[in-house]
Design brief:
By secondary structure, the protein is of the alpha+beta class. The chain contains six helices and 15 strands. Helix 1 packs parallel to helix 6. The chain binds adenosine-5'-diphosphate and uridine-5'-diphosphate (UDP).
């Protein structure tokens, strides 16, 4: 496999073509962004920590029957993935109120929900990723009705698997975002599952182990990412 030109440079990752038209190299950079790219920083080791964290989570999910784009780790900062035709909606599940829903609906952060909520957002930086509903997805043909059913089913399954795993490490999975894409007629989990795209709190003290440390200037961002990885048994080489 030979890495070729970058096909997409996002806020935290760069995607490269390869000599195999079915495969991409995903490079995790040290860049951190928040508030739709308004706040930016470079955080030492972030790319490496996220690359290993994501690889481990994707492998756990595969073992539990969730098909993903992840193929293998290539280096500290790179993974090989299957090229997907990305669905431009983000799937968000919340187990506890935090962040966007707290502001939008005026509900205090920390309320444990009696059951998880599901939300769709349109993946569009220029519009600030607005919240959308199934009717919008249907009318604007961002995904078929069958795909919408699958997006929700798979996202809820991921929640069940990860919530239970994280709980064994004394961590609460508060909320998270997933992206999926089409691959030979199948929906695969794409993009990443890292502490950049979820909220994870200590189950007892509610200390934050996720990107809110960066968003809210709480400090020691990568130290907490590594501490969460350690608790979960995810090995990140020195
Ligand atoms: P953003 O675009 O939000 O700034 P990133 O910096 O994480 O995000 O860039 C990664 C980009 O690659 C995202 O647009 C994501 O949708 C896309 N992507 C993720 N996985 C795949 C895949 N397997 N095939 C094609 N594109 C992917
Ligand atoms: N999220 C993400 N990318 C986005 C939007 C949200 O990874 O573009 C994640 C975010 O980290 C959190 C969850 O999805 O874990 C819910 O995000 P929320 O709607 O609360 O928005 P935020 O306040 O994080 O911008």
């Amino acid at each position: 496999m030979i890495k070729q030109a970058a096909v997409y440079t996002g806020k935290a990752k760069t995607v490269y073509a390869t000599d195999d038209p079915e495969l991409f190299v995903m490079e995790y950079r040290d860049d951190a962004t928040a508030f739709n790219g308004v706040k930016k920083a470079a955080l030492d080791r972030k790319g490496k920590v996220n690359n290993y964290f994501n690889a481990h989570v994707m492998q756990v999910l595969e073992h539990q029957g969730i098909k993903t784009h992840f193929v293998k780790l290539l280096s500290d900062n790179e993974s090989l993935v299957k090229k997907l035709d990305m669905i431009k909606v983000e799937c968000v599940i919340r187990n506890v109120v935090a962040g966007g829903i707290s502001k939008r609906l005026g509900i205090e952060e920390g309320m444990v929900l009696p059951e998880p909520t599901f939300e769709f957002f349109l993946k569009d930086d220029a519009l600030g990723d607005p919240i959308i509903n199934e009717s919008h997805i249907h009318v604007f043909k961002w995904a078929t009705d069958a795909e919408v059913t699958e997006l929700k089913r798979k996202t809820f399954l991921v929640n069940d698997i990860l919530k239970a795993w994280f709980a064994t490490a004394g961590l609460t999975l508060v909320d998270f975002k997933l992206e999926f894409g089409r691959h030979h007629g199948e929906l695969l989990l794409g993009d990443e599952f890292t502490l950049d795209g979820c909220r994870v709190w200590d189950a007892v003290t509610q200390e934050k182990f996720d990107k809110d440390r960066f968003r809210r200037d709480l400090g020691n961002v990568i130290e907490f990412y590594e501490a969460a990885a350690k608790r979960l048994g995810i090995n990140i080489p020195e």
